[in-house]
């Protein structure tokens, strides 16, 4: 059994898709959700979905308490599903090539500190991009710089608003993220 922990800061729609995807699996289990935002929608979602949700503060994140907990849960993979804090170096060291993030643009464009959620889609429209998409990538100590695992894209029309771009991106995230996680966690040879 592979144990996955999801980290989330927001509404948690991706977390829900991942949980649904692995529901009933005898090979992959979502053991916990870790959330840094006490008012995030993911907290109620987690309750509805029956997955334990641990809300943590910056201190326990920085001083290693959260990492120790996650390790004690026999976690194999950490999945960032809309998680907005930088991952500290001790996490990266403890889970080498075992932390995966989803970013709502085609990295290396529109990544880095402060580039998240609607800021990304606003920047894409302001730059007059003809396409956008999603990137699933390994996580290192820098925002959005780890190696790319998967990308998918869609056209941005001249009439598209940032909200339109966000909606198109979310469709791809929900369609692709769970499958890409499955292919990483359960490679065909295992
Ligand atoms: C997703 O679009 C994800 O790509 C983005 O946050 C959203 C979370 O939505 N992540 C980032 O911007 C990371 N830099 P959700 O809470 O509904 O899953």
Automatic annotation (TrEMBL):
Pathway: Purine metabolism; IMP biosynthesis via de novo pathway; N(2)-formyl-N(1)-(5-phospho-D-ribosyl)glycinamide from N(1)-(5-phospho-D-ribosyl)glycinamide (10-formyl THF route): step 1/1
GO biological process: 'de novo' IMP biosynthetic process
Keywords, ordered alphabetically: Purine biosynthesis, Transferase
The reaction(s) this protein catalyses: N(1)-(5-phospho-beta-D-ribosyl)glycinamide + (6R)-10-formyltetrahydrofolate = N(2)-formyl-N(1)-(5-phospho-beta-D-ribosyl)glycinamide + (6S)-5,6,7,8-tetrahydrofolate + H(+)
Enzyme type, top EC level: transferase
Known EC number: 2.1.2.2
Residues binding (6R)-10-formyltetrahydrofolate: 58, 101
Molecular-function annotations in GO: phosphoribosylglycinamide formyltransferase activity
Residues noted as binding N(1)-(5-phospho-beta-D-ribosyl)glycinamide in the record, renumbered to the chain: 12-14
Origin superkingdom: Bacteria
Pfam families: Formyl_trans_N
Domain Formyl transferase N-terminal: 2-181
Residues at the site labelled Raises pKa of active site His: 144
GO CC annotations, alphabetized: cytosol
Active-site residues annotated for this sequence: 103 (proton donor)
Reported function: Catalyzes the transfer of a formyl group from 10-formyltetrahydrofolate to 5-phospho-ribosyl-glycinamide (GAR), producing 5-phospho-ribosyl-N-formylglycinamide (FGAR) and tetrahydrofolate.
UniProt xrefs under HAMAP family: PurN (MF_01930)
UniProt record similarity statement: Belongs to the GART family.
Protein name: Phosphoribosylglycinamide formyltransferase
Species assigned in the record: Aquirufa antheringensis
């Amino acid at each position: 059994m592979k144990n996955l922990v999801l980290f989330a800061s927001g509404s948690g729609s991706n977390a829900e898709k991942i949980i649904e995807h692995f529901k009933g699996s005898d090979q992959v289990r979502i053991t916990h959700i870790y959330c840094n935002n006490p008012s995030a929608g993911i907290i109620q979602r987690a309750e509805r979905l029956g997955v334990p949700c641990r809300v943590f503060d910056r201190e326990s994140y920085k001083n290693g308490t959260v990492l120790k907990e996650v390790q004690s849960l026999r976690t194999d993979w950490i999945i960032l599903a809309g998680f907005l804090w930088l991952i500290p170096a001790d996490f990266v060291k403890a889970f080498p090539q075992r932390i995966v993030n989803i970013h709502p643009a085609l990295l290396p464009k529109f990544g880095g500190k402060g580039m998240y959620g609607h800021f990304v889609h606003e920047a894409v429209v302001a730059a007059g991009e003809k396409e956008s998409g999603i990137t699933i990538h390994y996580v290192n100590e820098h925002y959005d710089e780890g190696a790319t695992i998967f990308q998918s894209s869609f056209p941005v029309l001249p009439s598209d608003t940032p909200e339109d771009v966000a909606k198109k991106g979310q469709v791809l995230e929900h369609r692709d993220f769970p499958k890409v996680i499955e292919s990483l966690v359960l490679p065909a040879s295992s």
